[in-house]
Amino acid sequence: MKYVLFGSACVVLVLGFILGSSYYKGQQDDKYGFLAQKNADLFVRDHSPTLGSDDAKVFIVEFMDPACETCAAFAPFMKQAMAANPGKIKLVIRYAPFHDGADNFVKILEAARMQGKYWETLDLMFKTQNIWASHHDYQPERLWEVLPRAGLDIARIKTDMHSPAIAKIIEQDMADVKTLNVQKTPGYFVNGRPLQQFGYRQLAQLIQSELDVQYPPTR
Amino acid sequence: MSQIDQAAKTNWTLLFLGWLLVSLSATISIFFSSVLEYEPCVLCWYQRICLFPMIFILGAGLFPTFDKSVIKYALPLSIAGGLTAFYHTLLYAGIIPENIQPCSKGVSCTEKYFELFGFVSIPMLSFFAFSTIIALLFILKRRTSK
Question: Fewer CB within 10 A of the end CB, N or C, for chain A?
Answer without folding.
Answer: C
